[in-house]
Amino acid sequence: MAAFCGFPEEAYDQVFIILDKMDKIGMDGVARELTEAGYEEEKIKKYLSLFESVSNDAAGVRSLGSILKEAMDQEQAENLAAIIDSVSQITTSQFHIVFDPTLVRGMSYYTGTIFEIQVDGFPGSVGGGGRYDKMIGKFTGMDTPACGFSIGFERIITILMDEGFTVPGKEDKVAFLIEKGVSDDVMNGAIKEAMEERAKGVTVLVSQMNKNKKFQKEGLEKEGYTLFKEFYRDALK
Known about the structure:
This protein has nine helices and six strands, in the order αααααββαβαβαβαβ. It has helices at 12-19, 22-36, 41-53, 58-67, 74-90, 135-140, 153-162, 184-199, 213-222; strands at residues 114-117, 127-131, 147-151, 173-178, 203-208, 225-231. Among the domains are: 105-165, no CATH class; 173-231, no CATH class. The termini are far apart.
């Protein structure tokens, strides 16, 4: 698209860095920054008009490929459209695959299709990757086709927590809180009981009871502990 609109190859990095801000600053913001970077108005208008006219499905990819036939091999557009068609037809999961011509990923080792994973209502991506046919060969000496991705683990956990997700079949986590100065019998009994519960697959934490027990429990609840058993010097409560 950049080549079709007359941008020189040495300008691609700068143009794409600006383009990558589309979701934050909008079409007008991209146009303004390209203008400020010194690019001709005619090239900018031609470039951005392509983004305004293309649809986000396989038909949109093929249509755009036809427009760009002077600047790119038609096989590239057809390959990308085939990916969209194939994934849409064979998937058994609940997601939608769409074409986004504004998508930019900064890693220079990509050699083909790139992608990102988004969740409705959550800004940014929770994963991304692409095709990198040459990277493995640099280390092994043998060209190896490859495609991979990474996930934003913390972002996904945040989304799950916001949605109130619980792990299916998750066992309760139990905290044994032992008062300072308990007798050996009480301590040994608590440890023995914890070992028996752990043998059953229950997660048991054995910890000394803090003076501020309420604050201690609140902290443990944030770590997933839902049951508490308290051991005191004279008796079990």
